[in-house]
Design goal:
The protein is mainly alpha-helical and 218 residues long. The protein is built from 10 helices and no strands. It is elongated and about 55 Å long. The protein starts with 35 loop residues before the first helix and ends with a helix.
């Protein structure tokens, strides 16, 4: 994958699905669905270990021990560590994004950007995104990234723009990329305090959305 995970474009179709639904020996036979409880236990264990030890130190064996499952089960469901981390962070580790806005652009931007910053400030997300940026490429399956993270975030921003009558003049995907990229840079690369990031990006995006490119150049 090129660039930061949180600021990258959505993976190409066919590259974002989780590995097949079969389970490891002792859990179910071929073609049987995964155990929901064990699936979620593995994802929760991955998040906790990311927060405690970081991406590089994360191993399938450690995840299996924490989740009380076999290493073979983890490896069968997620053959790549990057795929496991992606699903843990983006598939089931994301709180719902705001969907209702009041129509006050500055306040709504603070709500939207604040939600991204809260998520990006989590220790597991910091460690996971930094690791995925280095470990994943364009062909790495990243389950959860599109359907669990990018699409809901896009819909949240679209709702914000529509509530503030700014939808027609704004490129939504480009605007979202700009915000996500800035959050990643400030929180993960520069370690800027979260409250500073929220205030700065709110002011910057308020000015940008109140002064579309066409008006600025006219």
């Amino acid at each position: 994958m090129t660039g930061d995970v949180l600021s990258s474009s959505a993976p190409a179709s066919g590259k974002r699905s989780a590995p097949g639904p079969d389970t490891a020996s002792g859990d179910a036979g071929p073609g049987r669905p995964r155990s929901v409880e064990r699936h979620e236990a593995v994802l929760a264990a991955t998040r906790s270990l990311l927060a405690e030890e970081g991406y590089s130190a994360l191993t399938f064996s450690a995840v299996a021990r924490r989740a009380q499952v076999t290493r073979q089960l983890v490896n069968r469901w997620w053959p790549l560590k990057a795929s496991l981390v992606s699903e843990a962070l983006f598939g089931s580790g994301v709180e719902p994004w705001p969907t209702t806005y009041v129509g006050d652009l500055r306040a709504d931007l603070r709500t939207f950007i604040g939600a991204i910053v809260v998520y990006g400030s989590r220790p597991d997300v910091r460690a996971g995104v930094a690791g995925l940026t280095a470990d994943a490429d364009a062909d790495t399956p990243l389950p959860g990234l599109v359907e669990g993270f990018l699409v809901p975030l896009h819909d949240s921003l679209l709702a914000l723009l529509e509530a503030n009558d700014t939808r027609e003049s704004i490129d939504v995907p480009l605007t979202l990329n700009t915000i996500r990229g800035a959050v990643v840079m400030h929180l993960i690369a520069d370690r800027t305090p979260p409250d500073v990031v929220v205030s700065h990006l709110t002011d910057t995006m308020f000015w940008a959305l109140r002064n579309p490119a066409g008006e600025r150049s006219g």
